[in-house]
């Protein structure tokens, strides 16, 4: 056997221990990589087809933005104008030729459409309205038409006009919103670093995964350092064992470089085998731990496998470990290659002088008896890496722990795969509050700005603060949908404060908006790393109005979730079943009242019914669970806008003079030029008025015997006032807009009966539609409610009227939760009538919650994070376990080197009568002298390293800034754990030497090449 083969293949017990240590270290990295890669794969699954990275940026100069725009970029001028009441409103201009949709950003449930103003201004109005604004050139009055596109990229509160109009209103060079539509998300490296994505979910997840991989890179560097320390220590022992062989090799022509590379190759083989073994162990162990966790019932949703991300990461990590081993082997052999061959094997002797001073005696007491004091350096490095892992995981746990606290709970949709896919009625929160439970309906908003991922939250800040104990440090709570508050930690991460604007994109739906930070709050855990926007804005960015992803509660005992709901107070509730919206003065008004007793016992209540200052009272007695309807008649007061009240319920009612003229409210407010409109003129009691004069735009006509006039609309587009008059009667007026391209819509009347009821009620909508145009109309009518839509196509000849009754909630899978819901009638998507229906909360409410919702003792954000990472506690346990095993193996290798170097001294102790237990006691005393300062220094290095990483931004993951302010008990526990692991490693390293006879320790153990080996050379 040649000396090359002997040096490369003759492995001792220490070498095999090194293979084991490297294997454990590699298993740690492989397991962590597989879990993170599985999380990355799951993020792509959760986000579905959201692989567009079309982004939006906000510029302070429209001219500059236009000049800098790339081909395909869309540049929209924008300005903020103040209305007459002082409120601020954003105007956005759409240039001519702008596409109506960004197809690549559209998703199945919402198109990324760009609204067209059609030559005018559209805004958040129900009908054409004139509003006054302060512009750069002074005050001006604008006609605002209703918005017709429900899938607009822009918020419904924004006013949309032509680009030239906005630039004129803003005066000079206005700001600009730029959309860059030609980018695609193909992986972690394609995350956009500028702007806000129109659909941010996948960008948020990929950017966060990239941050996690950066943290994994730091772990790789630490693990490579451990491998370097272990292999260096073991090969130093090998060099010491083979020093005579090296001397022979050097004396017979072997160059120092050849010797160094032989030991480097030997180290590479040892580490390579350890890496291969660790790869297999890490893969098998990780899957085994996940399977055990699933079997134990933990909510694990990860499937560790060799995804392309995992393969790419391991292709960098594992060769790095092997190269670190080769470097360690080369460094270990340097001591045997720097001196001449004749001086190899010389062992320096310790000075025998003693210092009798106090300092000398103290130094003697603190100097190890058997072990080399220099072992404190590798021990410190090893324990420092362990301490970094523990303190880092404690920081992660501290950030995530508040998400799982039982002080907060979550009500989400029953059967939903995770909270991100949950949809639940927001009005459940109102009823929970009525039961004394603090509740906050919330929507998670995944966001990314300039490549920095962070969590947004749609919520009412007051409700959010009530369940999280958040407190405002600066500023105030949001007062409009375009305002937001931000957590103190996230404010530092994004470097924003009160008064700073943020451009936000849609979360799972294409959208863009601009909000202003008006407050900074402080809260526990990740709640301090979020930006909170009002729910109306969150609905624009994420899911449709009326629904949220979950309701966070204060953690009160929700008995109703297990079917034992607390009973309501034994009182009778009353609601308005039917009442007119318009009446005449001094006329008798009939109001139908619905009463219900949700209590367990009979009850009696006095029910007041009033219009203005006219009041009537009715006494109602009901048994337990009974309900009834009754009518109350009272005389209408003097003309004016009045309020009808029944108990705590109210609705507006308009009182007109008995002889007043009146246009029915169903009369259309828009129409095309020169169209003929049938205009009815009636009394407040809807009696037709013949021979009344109707005028609009200089054109005059009279009503016939049926009280209807055929009015031809003006030829010029614009805003007009339709007037009706007749001698001796107060006039009637109606605003009318004539617009080119305006579609003729039917007039409609919608009445829901009853107007309110319990969660079990099935109300009926009475729909009356009429064709007021001198042309045949065919329209698809949609009755839209909170939980279902009903469609029907009608065809009406001029003047024809049709009536139908529709069950409002028919066909819905569930029942509406308590709250007030709009019920709308749409004609080909355009609203033409609206009513309201109120669902009352009663003793059956929580039963409805139990069927439609599911309660969990975790915060919603926590469930979302678990849906992305699986169970994070599992990852933490695996990391600490593998880090502990790595530390034990590394310290064992370190102390094995020092014990091996002092094996002769151990042999002398054994030969002079010391028992193995005595020697072990001496070694443990030395270990204490080495490990105690090593643990202290390791903690300092760990905390210092984490602070440096925190300053570098490495410890900000998914926008969550990990705290490096580690509690004292954690530091103490880490120090004790590190010390215990070092003692265990020392015991494992010493026991093999204690089991050998003293003669074996005193004798030579150096393996030398044989004479035949030398001849072969």
From TrEMBL:
InterPro entries: ABC3_permease_C, CarboxyPept-like_regulatory, Ig-like_fold, Macrolide_Exporter_MacB. Keywords: Cell membrane, Membrane, Transmembrane, Transmembrane helix. The keyword Transmembrane helix applies. Residues 220-341, 878-997 form the ABC3 transporter permease C-terminal domain. GO terms for cellular component: plasma membrane. Residues 339-360 are annotated as: Disordered. It is found in: Cell membrane. The chain crosses the membrane at residues 212-235, 267-289, 309-333, 375-396, 874-896, 927-949, 969-994. GO terms for molecular function: transmembrane transporter activity. It is a multi-pass membrane protein. Belongs to the ABC-4 integral membrane protein family. This is Permease. It comes from Halococcus hamelinensis 100A6.
